[in-house]
Amino acid sequence: MITLYLAEDQSMLNSALTQLLDLEDDLHVLGSAGDGAKAWQDIQQLKPDVAVLDIEMPKLTGLDVADKIHGSQLATKIIILTTFAQKAYFERAIAAQVNGYLLKDSPSDDLIDVIRKVMTGQTVYAPELVTNMVTAESNPLTDRELAVLAEVASGLSSKQIAASLFLSEGTVRNYLSTIFSKLGVHNRIEAVQMAKKNKWLE
Known about the structure:
alpha/beta, six-stranded parallel β-sheet, 6 strands
C-alpha cells in the first residue's frame, strides 16, 4: 500500500482527488490540507510515502514544503501539481529534487501512474513543462546524472556504466529515465545530442 498526503487549497479539487486516489487498491490518502503550513506539520508526523503538493497555497507554497522535505531528508517522495508551466517554478522544483511535476489539467490516470512510478525510483516531469524550458543557462541535470550521460556518450551499455560508476544496473536505468524526463527526450541519442548542443558535455 502506497500512503499519500495531499495539499491543495481548492477544497473541491482536494476532496475530489482524495476520493479518486483512495479508490485505487494500492493507494491510501493519510490526510490532506488546504495550506502549506498545515501540510508540512502533518507530513512530518504522518511520514507518507508520497506528498502531492499544489504550488500556490497560503502560508507556505508547495515548493516551500518540498524544500523542507528535501532539507529534512524525509523519505517522502514529492509530486508537484501546478496550473501554469512557469520556468522559475520548474527550476526551483528541480533544485528541490522533486520526483514528479505535473500540470493540473493532466488526466487523473497520469497522476496515479506517476505516483506508482516515483515509488520505483523514477522521476517524471510532464513533457509540456520541459518543452522550451531547458536552455544552456539552465542545466537541470545533477552531477551524477551528467556522469551517467557522459558514459552513455562514450558508447557504454547500462551494464558497463554500472560497473564504471559502481552502481547497480537498475540504478543506472533509473538515472537514465530521470535524464530523459528532465530533458524531454525519448532515448540516449537525443539526450546526448541535447547535452552536447548546450555544452553540458564536451
